[in-house]
Amino acid sequence: MTTRVHYENKREQTTRERRKQIFDAAVHLFIKKGVVNTSMREIAEAVGITTGGLYHFIKSKDEIIRMVTENSIYAHESLKTLRKNLGNVSPTEAFRVCAKCWLTVQEFGLEQTAFLDREKVHMELDVQEAVSDLVRDLIHFFEDLLNDGIEAGEFEVDNVTLVAFNTYMLRGIFATRQWFLKDRFTSEEYATQQTNAILKQILVDRSKIQPGGG
Fold first, then answer.
1. Which of 45, 42, 24 is nearest to 33 (CA)?
2. Where residue 169 sits, what CATH number does that domain have?
3. What is the total count of domains within the chain?
4. How much is the pLDDT for 26?
5. C-alpha angle 75/41/37, rounded to 5°?
6. What b-and-e string marks burial along 107-140, b requiring 16 or more CB atoms within 10 Å of the CB?
7. Predicted confidence band of residue 82 (pLDDT cuts 50, 70, 90)
8. CA distances from 135 to 66, 69, 80, 162, 202 (A)
């Protein structure tokens, strides 16, 4: 019985690892060639398996696209969890930490972020709607953070929605323009400097900005 459980666990782990390899290779090809111009055969070749072997793990390109969307849902929900775990901190600190977390795009997330930004038009309608809902939801999240700061007298914001929207979009800018930005900033440096730039625009007391820090 123990041997069987061990075998099943190992098989599940192997399946997860293979699906991740396929997922990463597919997103890379989607960014390079576009969804329409990428074939399942090319994805299989990039992973080093047969097309038949590929279909054992992934049924279609649409399934891969849905996986990207699911990863995005997880990223968005993680940001909300982060805010909740911060507890009773000042609105300035809450915005600083959440904005920096959002803007620090790890290496594995760069192509996924770029993919969602550039390839939405090729997604099925329900996936397009899900992505749009995610974007709206996170913009509202940043609006709430900004409004908390305004109510506390820490922020002065002319247009809350625009600042929230720009904060959201800065992640996509780093992902889609990394060919230029990565020569000048690490993801961490980009996130820190962009967060500080936003705070300089909205803080009533600019002494709360942490130069070069987080």
1. 42
2. 1.10.357.10
3. 2
4. 85
5. 70
6. eebbbbbbbbbbbeebbeeebeebbeebbeebbe
7. very high
8. 16, 11, 14, 13, 22
